[in-house]
Amino acid sequence: MADSFGKLVVRSHAPKRRAVLLGLAGLAGVAVLYAAFELGRYEAGFRVVDSVRGALSASRRIRSLEAENEKQRAQLEGAEVARRVDRESYKQVYRSLGDMQSQIARLNQDLSFYRGLVQPDSLVHVKVQQMQIVQNRLPVNIA
Q: What is the four-CA torsion angle of 40, 45, 49, 55, rounded to 10 degrees?
């Protein structure tokens, strides 16, 4: 039986320690790869601080442009309201202008008629056969 113990090998069995060592070795490998990646970026001219500054600057510029955009929208809205008011005003002016032109035409007709009465050689020939002038008496209220 002594022969069978000659081939016997005794090893310590620590599966947790082995797993921890493998995990640490894996983390160290990832850290070395990431360090190599960052070194490559640094050598290529990429700076994390500069990129963060650029992003902050771009975000400030975006905020200022959005504020300016909102201001211009408000101005545009005001201009639209003013344009609508102007359009309505022009419509009313044209309407009253048409009314005044028709009133002037009627007054010109009346003027031609009365000129015909006064001037016998005018284009409008009116013959007055009888005329009566009556005083218009309006009732007067005295309070």
A: -110
Whole-prediction pTM = 0.43
Residue type, 7: K
Name 128's Cβ contacts closer than 8 Å, sequence gap at least 6. 117
Q: Which of 58, 56, 57, 37 is nearest to 46 (CA)?
A: 37
**Residue-level pLDDT, tens digit, the chain, 143 residues:** 556 666 777 777 788 888 999 999 999 999 999 999 988 888 888 888 888 899 999 999 999 999 999 999 999 999 999 999 999 999 999 999 999 999 999 999 988 878 777 776 666 566 667 778 888 777 666 65
Alpha-carbon distance 64 to 71, whole Å? 11
Using CA atoms, how far apart are residues 126 and 118, in angstroms rounded to an integer? 9
Alpha-carbon distance 102 to 61, whole Å? 61
* Whole-angstrom distance, CA of residue 130 vs CA of residue 19: 135
